[in-house]
Known about the structure:
Number of domains: 1
Strand order of the largest sheet: 1-2-3-16
Mean pLDDT: 93
Distance between the termini: 38 Å
Low-confidence stretches: 153-157
CATH superfamily: Cytochrome-c3 Hydrogenase, chain B
Radius of gyration: 22 Å
Helix content: 40-55%
Order of helices and strands: EEEHHHHHHEEHEEEEEEEHHHEEEHHEHH
Strand content: 15-25%
Shape: globular
Number of strands: 16
CATH architecture: Orthogonal Bundle
Oligomer: single chain
CATH topology: Cytochrome-c3 Hydrogenase, chain B
Largest sheet: 4 strands, antiparallel
Number of helices: 14
Amino acid sequence: MSRKIAIPQVTRIEGHLAVHAETEPVGEGQGFRVTEAHCEGEMFRGFEKILEGRDPLDAQQIIQRVCGVCPISHGIASVRAQEMAYGIRPNRNGRLLQNLLFAANYLQSHVAHLYQLSALDFVDVKALLGYSGDNALLRKLRTWMEQSVARKDLFPGAPLLPRFEVPYIEDAGINLALVAHYAEALEVRRIADEMGAIVGARLPHSTALVPGGVTQVPTMERISSYLARLKRVEAFIEDVYIPDVITVAGLFPEYFDIGRGPGNMLCYGVFEMDDAGNRLFRPGVLINGRWEAFDQAKITEDAGTAWFDVASGLHPSRGDTIAAPSKKGAYSWLKAPRYAGQVMEVGPLARVLVNYHDPSNTWVKAEVDKVLGELKLPAEKLVSVLGRHLVRALEARWVARECYRWLEELEVDGPPAQDFKLVRNGSGYGLTEAPRGALGHWLEIENYKIKRYQCVVPTTWNCSPRDDKGVPGAVEAALAGTIVADPAQPIELARIVRSFDPCLACAVH
């Protein structure tokens, strides 16, 4: 007998996402297979409408408020769109300082994704109540847990309870170590935010980010302060983060075969390495396993199943944000972006695989092949739940490593930004890669004011509803075919969804 599975509120993500799945029985005692799934973005925000009529220089400040986890991504995309409209590029210091600000936000976001958002899908925190011993960490954890259980609410044990009652890691020592690392990750994230504040004036929403660079002059004191913190964050990545991902992978190897998705990958490119605009992660797409050069003109958005009264198939530069909450046949506040008509996955996995197959970017292939060799895994296993976690950890390593180069290349006390003049009329787009994936902002200026502003963000790609042809989005496709052992405790679906690191606060318009 078929069963319906509902996760009316997916926790430990940014924003409000519901997942509904139809299932069929696999066999007696063998669970239920998902036949189709729907991702539902459940709130409307309207940031693009808020920006209309504003001074373009307000854009990077207002649009960062889309999200407190990845605000710098939106700030960077916004200033890139303005730079195109003003006909400028960042000067050398501006480029390097924007990279350093962006990298700090990347590192804290990647650490947060494993420890604060995803690790508790695998760690048995409830078992900690029964562990013997008397140390400070156990006492603190017991207090959190006991208060949550007693009060039957989510505070102060919100990060730990409630949870699905399913098998988790059984080894007491591993559980305790991972929860200790959960606490340590909070400190590491704070340090990464301090790195960003050194060049961005403050975080999470930087006031120093401007078209052409930043407003913070790179003094020797700032460079030294950033460097000291970078060393601490890098040590955590190398000594804790990557080993923890490998530990979890060894205990749950089946998740290298779960949550594949559509298989098509999209990357806009990120972290400019020189004045010519070459990037650390280069733009490109993988469609049906073949690498292709990226063409932003091939991006469209369908809106047939989204609560918007707008035409489908439009390029984002022609898009609009007109809410239609009573629209028949709609089930999400997300539109359905497509590239050349194809469903695409975006994020760390897409960045890595696009660059792995890019014939001009050999260093990524060498790095990935080395790790795959150590784990005795073929590359195709990366398109999975654990593959997404693994490449995110590797990417954190690479981004931290590049920060040393960018610090060395700075001109101490040199100008931190390129001068520019406002334009009466103009347009531009800013394409970058948020920690969660491909992020694009499209801007039109008329009479010194914003006439049109449109965003297509990573989770709009990944958690999109069905397009006008009825083709499911990337996460919906990744959920289909999954076998759920107990429909009342669908941990399998939660693990898949969180591997994409959804940010619905960004994705809804």
